[in-house]
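Quarterly update from the structural biology core.
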Amino acid sequence: MQLVASGVKQALTRSSWIRRMFEAGIELKKKYGAEAICDFSLGNPDLAPPPQVRQALEEIAAGADKPFAIGYMPNAGYPEVRSALAAYLAKEQGVEVAAGDLILTVGAAGALNVVMRAVLEPGDEVLCPAPVFVDYGAYVWNFGGTLVPVKSLPDTFRLDLPAMEQAINAKTRVVLLNSPNNPTGVVYRQDELAALADILRRKTAEYGRPIYMLADEPYRFLTYDGVTVPPFLPLYDYTLIGSSFSKNLALAGERIGYVVVNPAMPGKAELLDGLVLAHRVLGYINAPAIGQRILLKALGAQVDASVYAARRALMAEVLTAAGYEFSLPQGAFYFFPKSPEPDDVAFVGKLLEEKVLAVPGEGFGYPGYFRLAFCVDEAIIRRSAPGFARARAKV
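Predicted structure, tokenized:
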């Protein structure tokens, strides 16, 4: 007897490798104790929020006995929060952004789902460079679309622009980019993004409907060695950005994000109306009221990124000493080393035997590698060194 829809059943069979490894870690911690396990499976930021978050919560609590203190607001969010965020994004992106150019959403995942609902017809395709964040396929499938991964260049994980251009066809509706990238840590350069924008302009003209460039960038704040993330909005008229404050304000559980539409987009009012409608009918209704109030107080603040830089350096030291091949991540808090054996799932099993939890590259559509989330205490990274060495010696 089938209890769930066939599409959901299929999705369950290829369920997130991240979640599987996280659950395996729970069982190992029960068996051996938390101190024995080195868990790099989940990108769950562990730093405390900046002090502005606590100040905002205290102010919210002080006014919580007033009518509508945490009630409904316009579906797109509180007007004063949208205005403040618009001013912030105008500086970040180098273009004038108005409050009416954006809506507040239930995290970046909510932002991406709202965009897909607003623009996809059944059968449309969404192009994305691989490796691919594990849930992108589900976000597209939710609305009758198909995710089309295009392999990035080997080892460097830079955009394979000829391959992406070849993959674009009359069904292509969105090109989805994540920079800094999860799982590789790559930050896409200005020149490759500009070249991609040129391709999209040509293809939009050829097929007679917009092909959107959609940037997913919750890690924009977290880069290393002087690398910066180029602004997306000036690149191309049909650009949207979806993001969140889960990482930079350590508010992952509060689910506060946004979608901003390029102010230069022709006919943008119709798309914005569609985004607001999608936000409502998908059941989100509005972004969390408390999260919006926190954002108004904490916008511009962030966690201490130097902590992540130190962890990155230590993780690189541990992997190098154990003989792994990897590219140093330019941003975010992930390493994506090459598996010492072709079967990355089998090798992740060897790591698991050593009580080290990683996620196989197969889960990101890029076999032969594995992901490590280094948003963990330095003591865990140091403790993992013998396990990494022993697992590699088994190959």
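The domain at 52-298 is CATH 3.40.640.10 (Aspartate Aminotransferase; domain 2).
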